[in-house]
Amino acid sequence: MSARRLPILAIQAAFGTSKTVIGALIAARTFSDFSERVIATTSTNTAVAQFTDTLLRLDDYNHLDILRYVSDAALIEGAPQTPIHLHTILKQLPENYADALSPESLETCLKYKRGRELLERFMFYHDLAVELSKAERDEYRLAERDISDLTKKTITIMFQVWPPAVVCITTSALLNSIAADGIFRGWFDSFTTLIGDEASQIPEPALVALATHLPHVRHIYIGDTRQLEPHARCPRSSNPAR
């Protein structure tokens, strides 16, 4: 299925038929066979974590660079964690790619790493000894929109030295992140395929918005229409997404 160049592909299968494994295989083979980058999305962070874990367990494709995006707000609320979160990858840039970075880029990554580690001590471990002003917290935070110039620069460096083969992200975060002030604005222009897992749970307005904002990619949706229906329908009288 990854070899078929259909612009839209829908895969309907019953519960327990390894739909997520199929989706992960399509994502992996799309990059491995065609060097084309993939966005994998679904409606909840739990489902994104499951897709990511499935992709990471594919032994034949463990060489692929996989990125999962989770906002700080979602992490604080207890979103399942995986070892390839964006904040982890960004912190590893100075160590893993020191030889490939210019002195200026290396300094940018080091500055972000130091500030991000302090912010995480404050956010996740409640280290009250860490004193960060609101401006400093905003400098290092990860959000879908309105990120700091330092965070933008560090993400630009990441895409230059470590362009991910697959990005795993919730549907709502995806739509926000490609908006005018989004964290991934412009970076998904080179991606060719969108895979929507558990597609029956993706609200119909979101499906329309995905098609509107990502018209250049192949859309592959995997799910079971009898498993879970969308929690928001799109009436025929609705205005088109803009």
From TrEMBL:
The keyword Glycoprotein does not apply. It comes from the Eukaryota. Keywords: ATP-binding, Helicase, Hydrolase, Nucleotide-binding. Gene3D superfamilies: P-loop containing nucleotide triphosphate hydrolases. One of its GO terms (molecular function) is hydrolase activity. PANTHER family: DNA2/NAM7 HELICASE FAMILY MEMBER (PTHR43788), HELICASE WITH ZINC FINGER 2 (PTHR43788:SF16). This is AAA_11 domain-containing protein.
